[in-house]
Each structure stands twice: as C-alpha cells, then as structure tokens.
Amino acid sequence: MPPQMRLAFVASDAPIAQQAKATLHAQYNGVPLEEAEIIVALGGDGFMLETLHDTQELDVPVYGMNRGTVGFLMNNYSSQGLRDRLARAEEEVINPLRMTATSVDGTLHEALAINEVSMLRSGPQAAKLRIHVDGKLRMDELVCDGALLSTPAGSTAYNYSAHGPIVPIGSEVLALTAVAAFRPRRWRGALLPKAAQVTFEIVNAAKRPVHADADGVSFKNIARVDIRSAPEIEHRILFDPGHGLEERLIREQFA
C-alpha cells in the first residue's frame, strides 16, 4: 500500500470509538469517505455491518478495529502502525442476501442482509411457515418461534445461537435454521446452494403475526418472504494476516 493511501475513519456512537476516531483521523490525516481508498471502521460487529451497507456504492475495502463488544468481523485495535497493517491486510469478498418481504396488505419491502434474513413471531402464538426452495415446496408446515437464512459470513452470529451450523466461508452454501422448532420437533434445518431462491410463506399471518428482519432492518405483519443471494454486490473486508474469516470460522468451531 502506498504510504499516502487515503484513509477515512468512521466510528460508532460509543465514546471509546469516537475517541479512537479522533486520534486516528489526526494521526493519519483522515479524508472524507468520498475520497477514501480504505475505510477504517471503529466499533463492534453491528457497526461494521452498518458501515458495509452505508458504503456499498463506494467499492472501497473496509478495515474494522474493535471498539465494541464482540468484534468477529473486526481486527484488534491499535493506533500504531496502521498503514503497515493495512499494507499487509488480506481481503475477503462476501455477497449479501437480497430480501423481498410482502406485508399482509400487499406492500413490498426490500433489504439486503450480510449476515442473515430472519422471521420471528410477533405475538404469543408460534409462527407457522411454509418453505419453498427454487419454487418447489420443501416443507408444508414448520411450527416455530421463527426461522432464518444465513450467509457463511453470518453463520457464527444469530444462526449459531439458534444451533445452526458454522459454514466455511468458501463453501457456496446458505444455512437455513429454525428458531425453537416445535414441529417437526427434531428438524435441524438445511444447507442450501448459494444460488437457491428461498420463499417463506407465513400461514395464517393475521392470527399468527410475523416480522421479517435483514441485518436489523425490520418489517412487521409479513405474509411472505423471498430471499436470494446477490452476487452482483460485493463487500470487501480487510483482515490482519492469519485472522481472516476462514480462519475465524474454523477457530470458532473449536472454542
């Protein structure tokens, strides 16, 4: 990386992240986002996802440093030697999911998800979902608190908490996982090709309301959710050598 590579710094609202941004901006002559060749994001994983979404149109790699709590997508924080770390960083390219959610009243909502698209019950009764894959009915009734479709990059997040599998970053598959499945009681989900188009129908949505969520963007009273991978969109993430997503996904399985 050339010594004068232009860097932009963004940070979450946390005081520790804001202080780090001020320090690094002054130390490395930070520039506006529109002029940056690399974006440095300071916060936790949630802020990293927000940054990737917000800077999607810039086609600029993002290097995260942890000033939050989890930091799975982040590198360790240090104010020293940043340009050298960036020069040696390894790039991972990930594709998001594209969600189209149809409300009970017919309104369409679209959103992108780097981690997962999830459907969760909004009331006291369990949700009833019907699942289609590539237009073919695969499950006539899943009674559950919800379900989600996860990318490999997001497989260690909500998907893993719901007892879904950790998916290797280069495996070209998506993880479909139930949340507290009641029937079929022992159903453990499915691994689907990355190119699969998945549709969830909410059965009796008026009585059993469900909301859909894509990386924290939620829509209420949903009757149907259509999901597919969006290979035309590429998010570029930088990691310190030996600490990329593939290594982190493997390491997480032995924690």
Automatic annotation (TrEMBL):
Keyword Flavoprotein assigned: no
InterPro entries according to UniProt: ATP-NAD_kinase_N, ATP-NAD_kinase_PpnK-typ_C, NAD/diacylglycerol_kinase_sf, NADK
EC main group: transferase
Reactions catalysed: NAD(+) + ATP = ADP + NADP(+) + H(+)
Residues at which NAD(+) binds: 45-46, 115-116, 145, 153, 156-161, 180
An MF annotation (GO) of this entry: metal ion binding
Location(s) in or outside the cell: Cytoplasm
Biological process annotations from GO: NAD+ metabolic process; NADP+ biosynthetic process
Function: Involved in the regulation of the intracellular balance of NAD and NADP, and is a key enzyme in the biosynthesis of NADP. Catalyzes specifically the phosphorylation on 2'-hydroxyl of the adenosine moiety of NAD to yield NADP.
The family this protein is said to belong to: Belongs to the NAD kinase family.
Protein name: NAD kinase
Organism: Thalassorhabdomicrobium marinisediminis
Classification of source organism: Bacteria, Pseudomonadati, Pseudomonadota, Alphaproteobacteria, Rhodobacterales
Gene transcribed to yield this protein: nadK
